[in-house]
Design a protein that fits this description.
0% strand; mainly alpha; 1 helix; rod-shaped
Length: 151
């Protein structure tokens, strides 16, 4: 069965069938040897990427949960810090009030002591003035009566 035409550039004969069978065998072998492995590698990579995507989503959810937990802990710590601050302020106010009360008591004691010393000084001064006044009065009277000063 040989058909030969010389006018065309391509001749169709039994070598075409041999080439087609060789090409099909080549496709079959290339599919078995290379394309299946490539497709398997692509599928493995896709599965790996899907796993990674799922892990990323899980980690994002976990991160969101940790962020919420951190915010809650921060709020609790801030509330505790405000309470401690208020307690310290109240304690400071009480201590300041105590110190002021003690200072006022000391001032009152010092004031009373100063008043007592002043009264004692005034009493001593009055006695000295009275005694000086008596002596002066006696001296004046004596001078007026005798005409000379008394030694």
């Amino acid at each position: 069965m040989e058909i030969i035409k010389t006018t065309a550039l391509i001749t169709i004969n039994e070598t075409l069938w041999v080439q087609m069978i060789g090409f099909l065998i080549f496709l079959f072998l290339i599919d078995r040897i290379m394309f299946r492995r490539v497709r398997r590698n692509i599928a493995d990579r896709e599965a790996h990427f899907d796993t990674l995507r799922q892990d990323i989503l899980d980690l994002k959810e976990e991160m969101g949960g940790l962020l919420r937990q951190t915010e809650e802990e921060e709020q609790q710590l801030r509330a505790a810090a405000r309470k401690i601050d208020e307690d310290l302020r109240q304690e400071g106010r009480r201590e300041a009030d105590t110190l002021i009360s003690r200072a006022l008591e000391e001032i009152h004691v010092l004031q009373q002591d100063a008043e007592q010393r002043l009264k004692a000084s005034l009493a001593t001064a009055r006695q000295q003035i009275e005694s000086s006044a008596r002596e002066l009065t006696a001296s004046i009277i004596h001078h007026l009566m005798n005409g000379r000063p008394r030694p």
